[in-house]
Amino acid sequence: MARIRTRLALLGSAAALTAGAALPSQSAFAVGEYQWVALGDSYTAGVIRAAGDTFEVPRDGCERTDRSYPQVIDRDLGGLFDLSNVSCGAATIDNVTDTAQEPIGRHFPPLSEDPDYPFPAVPPQSQAVDAGADVITVGVGGNTLGFADLLTQCMQLGGESGSEGTPCKDALAVGIPTRLTKVRQDYDRMLTVLHERAPKAKILAVGYPAVIPDDASKCTYGDLTQFATITHGDLAWLRKSVLEPLNQTINDSTGTQDTAGFVDLYTSSRNHSVCDATKWVEGIVSLPDQISLVHPNALGHRNTADHVEEAMLNAIS
Fold it and tell me: Which residue segments constitute the domains of the chain, with CATH numbers given?
């Protein structure tokens, strides 16, 4: 449905262009008329090979890929927006707001070594935003929450438990409210900074997709193309008590800003988790033997593009 609505909106834009050509006195969308800045972490940048090829030359370690949703939208909208994509794998909210980041590329020892690592620091992503921006998209928060660290610990604890129980929940649940509080505080500050830098811009906060199925028994314990040794009980806990509250925290933060809106990806992706037949998010590895560490593939980015496109077009209408 989102894709249909987006295509209809694009047809409307095309009609406006045609009308403008026939009637010079009427304004029409010019190529690159709207300034768009894409900010975010690896769920925006792409990072994994299943999300395309890295296109920066030379590489800066942020691993933006050509099938990530900012690049997909840039192609879809045919130059309506002038895109500045400064998203970066492993970015935290602070890296968007005001803290320089040292990108890691695809350096995940002992799983993988990046021959170009280490990379020079990149500036805070907000520096790419100025008063001329019309739309800002930002997808960030998972690294501030520490989701990758949670996955790693859950795999280790699940492996030690022999697939039984909720060892990760038992060990780590007490700290989740504090992590979520930090996400909310940092997100609020980030939105304030972005609004100050671009007062007229619409800020679209992009949520996270459903990476874990509603029924965790769909996942096969020990399968590296899924969640490896995380137990079913811990997967259910991560979904209900970590990922869903993360999205809600981001949504709540945008609700305090008149210039901000939330783009929900969770609902549309519920049947396309890491453990579903048609997955939009890869598991710990994707075939053949590529490190993926639970990131969206090209299908997932296509879905994100559909929803973000619609929100962007609504923002300028």
Answer: 29-316 (3.40.50.1110)
